């Protein structure tokens, strides 16, 4: 019973820490008004990395041993643990999926940032088709909020590129 109690305390600390990570990942991001679309890809890459690290830790032999001991002791903390484990898996899958879809836009980021307005416009139809494909096929990225954020960043990049073009000319 003493060992079980100590292990439950450890797992409760982990649960608290994991909940904090999940809460922070769901909070609104504070971003500059003129941020471009490559920042969106970087955000999801960083999120994927942190959730994958967390998953690796959860799947480590040390954690598995503690969880199996608590299972044998029929600990009540396991219900919360299993729920959080599932939430971390969902968050990791979401980040991985979003990175995969956003990488399809990566080829447009260079022309958006460096091209003249005329050259940039040649890329817009393909870019919009790709955004549409993401919206129609991504299980996670197809929300109004995510699409609005992405389109805003694309527009910001186009405006910044046009401003630079006008200032150079």
Written overview of the protein:
The protein is mainly α and 169 residues long. It has seven helices and no strands. The chain starts with a helix and ends with a helix. The mean pLDDT is 91. This is DYH5 protein.
Outline the secondary-structure elements.
Blueprint: H1 2-26, H2 38-58, H3 61-72, H4 77-103, H5 106-114, H6 117-137, H7 144-168
Helix pairs in contact: 1-3, 1-4, 2-4, 5-6, 5-7, 6-7
Our count of helices gives: 7
Indicate the overall shape: elongated
Whole-number radius of gyration?
22 Å
The percent range for strand residues is: under 5%
**Major beta sheet, specifics?**
none
Mean pLDDT: 91
Pfam family, one: DHC_N1
GO cellular component, one term: axonemal dynein complex
Domain Dynein heavy chain tail: 5-167
Organism: Haliaeetus albicilla (White-tailed sea-eagle)
